[in-house]
Amino acid sequence: MLSIRGLAKSFPGPRARAVFAGVDLELAAGEYVAVRGESGIGKSTLLNLVAGLDRPDAGSIAFDGLEVGRLGDDALTELRRRRMGFVFQAFHILPYLDVAQNVALPLALNGVLDGAGEARVGEMLRAVGLSERATSRPSELSGGELQRVAIARALVHRPRLVLADEPTGNLDPESAAQVLELLRTSVKREGAAGILVTHSPVAAATADRVYTLTATGLRQ
To answer: How far apart are the first and last CA of the chain?
Structure first.
């Protein structure tokens, strides 16, 4: 589903520096991997490249049969909207929408506003244990609950690839454990592929494989 070959990225400017080079990764449907590494090594940059939010200096990214680097901006936007799901450390839940409306956003963006879409939202809320919170505002939820909303939103449109960037960094250990288990089982259940970027060895241990990102590539 995802094939990364010889990926390299550097930051330009007066203090130009290489971030990483020689990154290779193969990821099949149903696989869930973790990427660890020192601060500043480019873990979030790697996710941005996979998502087409940034362009690499060298190498290739093939996702679901498409060469990401050959797609224009409109095609990349379409690819992210329809086939990718994102979970961030900062949640990015819209405060003026209730829980169900937040979860429904990817469906609305993809034009799925019928009864099937409503049923899908209900299904995801049950999966993350938030059915009774459907009409609650984000301000009424705990950090762990907000992250569960984010996971439901990331998976509601059945993406082919889930990208999670430090999704438990703002959570207490108990909430973090619940979110990590939910993220893993959800990726597996939906038959997606998942990449978890984390500095936490505990979080990384929930993945099928753990890689360390270095300046010269990924190492197991």
So the answer is: 20
Contact 197, 164 (CB under 8 A): yes
Domain with 206 in it? 2-95+159-219
DSSP-assigned letters across all residues of 26-60: EE-TT-EEEEE--TTSSHHHHHHHHTTSS--SEEE
Q: Which two tokens stand for residue 32?
A: 């869930």
Domain assignment present for residue 146? The answer is no
In a domain, 135, yes or no: no
Per-residue pLDDT of 16-50, as tens digits, reads: 677 899 999 999 999 999 999 888 889 999 999 99
Asked if residue 207 is part of any domain, the answer here is: yes
Residues 85-105: pLDDT tens digits?
Answer: 999 888 889 999 999 999 999
Q: Do the domain assignments include residue 127? A: no
| The total number of structural domains that make up the chain | 1
Amino acid at 38: E
